[in-house]
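Dear Dr. K.,

Following up on our conversation at the group meeting, I've run the structure prediction for Succinate-semialdehyde dehydrogenase from Penicilliopsis zonata CBS 506.65. I'm pasting the input sequence below exactly as I used it, so you can double-check it against your construct before we proceed with anything downstream. Let me know if the numbering doesn't match what you have in your notebook.
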Amino acid sequence: MALKTLLKDPSLVADQNYINGEWVPSVSGKRFDVFDPATGSLLGSCPESTAADAEKAIHAADAAFPAWRSRSGRERGRILRRWYDLVMENKDDLAKLITAENGKAQADAVGEVNLSANFLEWFAEEAPRVYGDVIPHSSSAFRVSVLKEPVGVCGLITPWNFPAAMIARKLGPALAVGCTVVVKTAGETPFSAIALAILGARAGVPPGVFNIVNAHENTPEIGQALCYSERVRKVSFTGSTRVGRLLMKQCSDSIKKVSLELGGNAPFIVFDEADLDVAVSCAVVAKFKVTGQTCVCANRIYVQRGVYDEFLKRLVEAVQGFRVGSGHEATTTHGPLIGANAVNKVAGLVDDAVQKGAQVVLGGKKLHALGPNFFEPTILTNVTDEMRIVSEEIFGPVAAIQPFDSEAEVIAAANRCEVGLAAYVFTQEAARATRVSELLQTGMVALNTGVISDVAAPFGGIKQSGLGREGSKYGVDDYLQLKTIVTGNMSVVHPARI
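The predicted structure tokens came back this morning:
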């Protein structure tokens, strides 16, 4: 397999499903190919799994659940901590896998490996700290205690844009509290997840606790198997709002817990009094990180008229310094999009905007010379709300910039959206920072920074951006259920006065 030649430790590469501690093919006997989006070269293949494969993994996780949940939080935490150590020891190889199958520039790939490891470390520390409660009863002869218990088997459906970090962010809390999991990898990027499974086994994760089912064309079939199964008690999904709606409907028959981290359309708001050096450097990160392929990317950039021209000038200068190419090259700052469909979507959004009056200040075209999956870093002005690029998630390297006059105007524009994941605000006025942050209808707000993700910060949105929170101390809550124990008829002894 071509991937093995890239790594110091070729044993981190496998090309099967991982079920009950064994590497097995699909019962279908079919496979799908995985390609490098930068070069188009074949990296390898994985099983095209079916519902029958998913059921095998679900049964394995169900069988492993009683023993895993019975371990102490401290024991589970030690295993997660060893897993963290192994990820860090193999950081270079894991980053190469991510670059190969996802296309990320090296710096972004290394950053994702660090984030993945940090989730394992964080939840290793949370594992022994899942506390219950004791509640005073209205009667002195009764006692009430509340236990927090693992929900059971969890189906985790992960995206291609962060093929390692999104798995770690989900399985970290699940395993920490005593759940077992079945992971459905993204068909574009299965090998990063497989490498994590190999390191997890080396860390001591028992067979059946962590299972992987791969599929590409059969992804909907695997999703349905997880949603409809009575043995699966929770489904966690990161992806589009459209698919999230379908999964939520499918889970309704079995009344299971659902966590959804869905689409975003983040407003990026720059006020006149903002520090422009900070605002521009953060726009570069928030808009163009991972070539614009993150759910918290700045999608609508609003700049107050007093600084609009200067902000635009500085942003153009910064973007002109990008080096677009294969992530395998050390000088590359921005890699390809994940595939031709992604490129065509971005091109379609730009074309629609231009037809409706937008001006292309920079870029605007496919980079055919580099390959079919590259698109120029692009800046558009004269953008209006009638353009699709304002209402649809871009998921590509296009900055659509609009001027605004008043605070009330920009808040109304920012909130005129069916999703509400993240927002970015740049101001040096403390009162405005507080006021605008509270009025924005999003689950997260970044003030004077372009980076919103951290293991200690709860991640998630409101409205049609999803349900639940991942990461942080709150990240364990969606993998727990409460059990109330009421003890009655306790005799109360009143000691004699001394």
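Two things stood out to me. The chain has a mean pLDDT of 96. The radius of gyration is 24 Å.

Best regards,
J.T.
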